[in-house]
Input
Amino acid sequence: MDRRSLERTLERGIFASRWLMAPLYAGLALSLLLLVVVFLREIVRFAGQALTLDDEDAVVAILSLIDITLTANLVLIVLFAGYESFVSRLEVGEEDDRPAWMGTIDYAGLKIKLIGAMVAISGIHLLKWFLWIGNADSADEFQNKQVAWLVGIHLTFVVGGVLLSVMDWLYARSKPH
Output
């Protein structure tokens, strides 16, 4: 085997290795089932309390459902965009049912969507805590530390998202046109 054919064989093997990602994406698809089960369990739990919930508890319940939904959206974004970017184009037949963003989101767009979802999820957790503190003894030092950590983590996600956007913007400006 000469050097060129060895190189081609190696390159084909490296290119085919992208299929090692397919089981990971299948696992993400299965994780959506887990989120559906948790969502349904929460709906049943909140429905049983519907007549006794006060307005703040109802808002916290709804925020919990939104949190689960945003997490599922995040999984779908990673699943679809990651599979199409790194493994293979999804050939699903019915193009009318295909989300408009599929096949058009690049790695930079995926990063922005991911950080946006993380900021939204973090914001919902923070809002739930703020509502909960209104009903609890907010003088508890442990609670204050938890809230400080939640705010710090949320701001880290926000600043990280802004920095990623700035880096992508600078990279796009540096490309020759």
Summary: Helices lie at 3-16, 22-48, 55-86, 107-135, 141-174. DSSP finds five helices and no strands in the chain. Residues 141-174 form the longest helix (34 residues).
